[in-house]
Write a structure and sequence with these properties.
Blueprint (H helix, E strand, L loop, with lengths): L14 H8 L3 H11 L6 E5 L5 H10 L2 E6 L2 H10 L4 E4 L12 E7 L7 H11 E11 L2 H4 L9 H10 L3 H11 L4 E12 L2 H8 L4 H4 L3 H17 L5 E12 L4
Parallel strand pairs: 1-2, 1-4, 2-3, 4-5
Antiparallel strand pairs: 5-7, 6-7
Helix pairs in contact: 2-3, 5-8
Length: 252
């Protein structure tokens, strides 16, 4: 059974549903800020910000000037309606509308898979000031294989793995763009439990990787998932796993 083209993924959903899927993670915000350690007067750029949930959280929790950029007009319009403290710009990550050395820090979360990574990271390096830091958060293919919402849908896992670059690929992109010191940390966050409400949500096919399955394949996966959950003594904890990469631009 043919899956949907990997270019057609959850980012095409309406902003409200996209927010539900991507979430508003205070823990991820804290992790990113701990690694970037912005200070008063800094200007931070969020590339591929989507509807701005995490962007707004960064702005409200740090007090630094924050700019969010996304190529989708609908997501930017949603962000504008919900937060006037952030400057929102509809622009492509591969052609950022900023002068060189504009920002002290840049973040990109769950976005590298929907753009030309080489060109986008090159642009991020260009707009960072010398000594600036770039945080990129993305799941690795190995982490995707551990997701319970995909575990019983092998084709969906392959679909998702085709979208996201490996950690080795991301490190290569950072190095090729000119970043000097490159480090990475695993981020794991508990997001709830696999209860009946969660199962009903999965049955709605919230991801395009699930919507791309035939009805028969999807129903078979749901049956296996239900049987697995029924065998467990308690509801399993759901986890969000990412790797956070930090690239530092060499000081002049």
């Amino acid at each position: 059974m043919r899956l949907l083209n990997p270019k057609h993924h959850l980012e095409q959903l309406p902003p409200e549903e996209y927010c539900r899927l991507r979430g508003r993670s205070e823990a991820l915000c804290r992790k990113l800020m701990d690694l970037l350690h912005p200070k008063a007067g800094d200007v931070l750029l969020d590339v591929g910000c989507g509807p701005g949930e995490l962007t707004s959280l960064i702005a409200s929790s740090t007090g630094v000037t924050v700019i969010g950029v996304d190529s989708d007009e609908g997501r930017i319009a949603h962000a504008v309606q919900h937060d006037s403290t952030v400057r929102w710009i509809n622009a492509d990550a591969t052609a950022l509308p900023f002068e060189p050395a504009t920002f002290e820090a840049v973040v990109m979360t769950l976005a590298i898979q929907r753009m030309n990574g080489k060109r986008a990271i090159g642009e991020i390096h260009r707009v960072l000031r010398p000594g600036g830091r770039f945080a990129l958060a993305s799941p690795t293919p190995e982490q995707l294989q551990r997701r319970l919402d995909l575990a019983f849908f092998p084709r969906a896992i392959r679909f998702e793995m085709a979208r996201f670059p490996s950690d080795a690929r991301i490190r290569t992109l950072l190095r090729d763009a000119g970043f000097g010191s490159i480090t990475q940390e695993v981020f794991v966050e508990s997001t709830g439990v696999a209860d009946s409400q969660w199962l009903e949500w999965i049955k709605q096919r919230p991801y395009s990787s699930l919507r791309g399955l035939s009805p028969e394949v999807f129903r078979a996966g749901i049956r296996e998932l239900e049987e697995y959950l029924n065998r467990l003594p308690s509801e399993p904890v759901l986890r969000n796993e990412l790797v956070v990469f930090i690239g530092c631009k060499t000081a002049a």
